[in-house]
Amino acid sequence: MKARIITRQKLCPDIFWYEISAPHVACRFQAGQFVIIQVHERGERIPLTVAEAHPERGTIVLVFQVVGKTTLELSLLKEGEEIENCVGPLGNPSEINFFGQVICVGGGTGIACLLPIVRALSAAGNEVISLIGSRSRDYLILEDKIKAVSSSLFIATDDGTRGERGLVTDVLERILEEEEVRGKIQRVIAIGPPLMMRKVAEITRPHRIKTIVSLNTIMVDGTGMCGSCRVFLGKAMKLACIDGPEFDAHRVNFDDVISRLEMFRAKERLAWAVYRQQLEARQMEIKTKVRAKEGTASHD
Amino acid sequence: MIKIRGQRVPVRELSPEQRIKNFSSVPLGYSAEEAVAEARRCIQCRGAPCEVNCPIHLRVLDMIRAIATRQFKEAFFLLKEDNPIPAITGRVCPQESQCEGVCPLAQDGQGINIGKLEAFIADWARERGIKEEIVIKERPHRVAIIGSGPAGLICAYDLRRWGYQVTVFEALHKAGGVLQYGIPAFRLPTEVVDYEIALLEEIGVNFQLNFFVGQNIAFDELRHKYEAIFIGTGAGAPLFLGIEGEHLKGVYSANEFLIRVNLMKAYRFLEYDTPIVCGDRAGVIGAGNVAMDAARCARRLGAREVFILYRRTRKESPARVEEIHHALEEGVTWMELVAPKRILGDEQGWVRGIELVRMKLGEPDASGRPRPIPIEGSEFVLELDTVVEALGTTPNRLFLKHAPELAVNRWGLIQVDEKLQTNLKGVWAGGDAVRGNATVILALGDGRQAAAAIHRVLSPEKLG
Ligand SMILES: Cc1cc2nc3c(=O)[nH]c(=O)nc-3n(C[C@H](O)[C@H](O)[C@H](O)COP(=O)(O)OP(=O)(O)OC[C@H]3O[C@@H](n4cnc5c(N)ncnc54)[C@H](O)[C@@H]3O)c2cc1C
Ligand SMILES: Cc1cc2nc3c(=O)[nH]c(=O)nc-3n(C[C@H](O)[C@H](O)[C@H](O)COP(=O)(O)OP(=O)(O)OC[C@H]3O[C@@H](n4cnc5c(N)ncnc54)[C@H](O)[C@@H]3O)c2cc1C
Ligand code: SF4
Ligand code: SF4
Ligand code: FES
Question: Rounded to two decimals, what is the model's pTM?
Answer without folding.
Answer: 0.94
